[in-house]
Amino acid sequence: MRVMGIDPGLTRCGVGVVEGRPGAPGTMIAVGVVRTDPEAGLADRLLALDDGLRALLDEHRPEAVAVERVFSQHNVASVIGTAQASGIALLAAARLGLPTATYTPSEVKNAVCGNGTADKRQVTTMVTRILRLKQAPKPADAADALAIAVCHLWRGGVKSRIAEAAASQAAAVAAAKERTR
């Protein structure tokens, strides 16, 4: 499975593409950052982010997109910008009909480090090891995006299978009720 992980940000939006399967190390396909001009107007920045993400989606053709879930910070302006960038990322994937998932920072840290309170250095170290990279990905936004992709690669398949099983069971229960009427 090929997964694009996105660490949303209005100025720097980390993007990492990983290919692999649950439980296996995986392979980094691409890593980078989509940047927007902090001096530009908000609408222009969101458009630039959308253009950049859409180009990367077209280039790398992931089967799924995973985005870091926005979490509360003390800086409200930062949260708003991150939420707007997250919305653009989810929209860009939805336009292509790609399945999407969101993960909290602690879910990502737990998936790649085994510790939901790991620091950025630990996450970068583990991503470098998991993907067998010769050097750590930089900047931190890019390393975080790879961690998000790995998290989905390892956990997303399980989540979707559980959801499919629950839907199948609900359909079977509904069919059984219908037969007894």
Short description:
This protein has helices at 42-60, 76-95, 105-113, 120-130, 140-179; strands at residues 2-7, 12-19, 27-35, 64-68, 100-103. It has 181 residues and is of the alpha/beta class. The chain has a single domain (2-179), classed as Ribonuclease H-like superfamily/Ribonuclease H (Nucleotidyltransferase, domain 5, 2-Layer Sandwich), CATH 3.30.420.10.
Give a written overview of the molecule.
The chain is of the alpha/beta class. The protein has 5 helices and 5 strands. It has a single domain, classed as Ribonuclease H-like superfamily/Ribonuclease H (Nucleotidyltransferase, domain 5, 2-Layer Sandwich). It has a 5-stranded mixed β-sheet with strand order 3-2-1-4-5. It starts with a strand and ends with a helix.
Terminal-residue CA separation: 43 Å
Structural class: alpha/beta
Discrete helix count: 5
**Major sheet strand order:** 3-2-1-4-5
CATH architecture annotation:
2-Layer Sandwich
- In the CATH hierarchy, the third-tier topology is known as Nucleotidyltransferase, domain 5
CATH superfamily: Ribonuclease H-like superfamily/Ribonuclease H
Largest sheet features? 5 strands, mixed
Mean pLDDT: 89
What share of residues are in beta strands?
Answer: 15-25%
Query: Class, according to the CATH hierarchy?
Result: Alpha Beta
Tell how many strands the DSSP assignment holds: 5
Helix amount? 40-55%
Based on CA inertia axes, which overall geometry fits? globular
Indicate the radius of gyration in whole angstroms.
18 Å
List low-pLDDT spans.
none
Order of helices and strands: EEEHEHEHHH
Q: What is the count of distinct domains?
A: 1
GO molecular function, one term: crossover junction DNA endonuclease activity
Main location: cytoplasm
Binding site for Mg(2+) 1: 7, 141
GO biological process, one term: DNA recombination
